[in-house]
Specification:
By secondary structure, the protein is mainly alpha-helical. The chain has 6 helices and 2 strands; from the N terminus they run αβααβααα.
């Protein structure tokens, strides 16, 4: 789904910029990143979930800074590719979104090695959107 289609379906709406809300979302994302770091290696699924949520919140803050409210995770991929012109990051986010959905909604498990790579990928992407 492209960004134009997301807007057409009202999954993305134009909003006024609220700096306090944006900062609050960034603070919550930071708390989740810190919490993930406290978890032991055996809790990799929880780390993945927390880091994905932090990443998605950073993207939400980024979208809000540009006057967009995005209501569906899929549309963050389009936002990354079309608005921010970050195609590689859009592809990576979409891959991570599918992994997170598999874990949260379908009980998909990942082995320790896979989990560590996913966590590394999440942290690298988070770093790109952390000020």
């Amino acid at each position: 789904m492209d960004f134009k289609e997301c807007k057409k379906q009202n999954i993305v709406k134009e909003v006024s910029i609220d700096k306090n809300k944006i900062q609050s979302i960034k603070n919550i994302a930071k708390q989740k990143m810190i919490s993930a770091d406290y978890l032991p290696k055996e809790h990799s699924i929880a780390k993945i979930t927390l880091l994905y949520d932090a990443l998605r919140e950073l993207l939400e803050a980024n979208a809000l800074e540009r006057g967009y409210k995005i209501y569906k995770h899929e549309c963050y991929t389009a936002f990354l590719k079309e608005i921010l012109k970050k195609s590689r990051q859009g592809d990576e986010f979409d891959k991570l979104r599918k992994i997170r959905n598999g874990i949260n909604y379908y009980g998909q498990e990942v082995n320790t090695e896979e989990a560590q790579q996913i966590i590394t990928n999440l942290k690298e992407l988070i770093e790109e959107f952390t000020e």
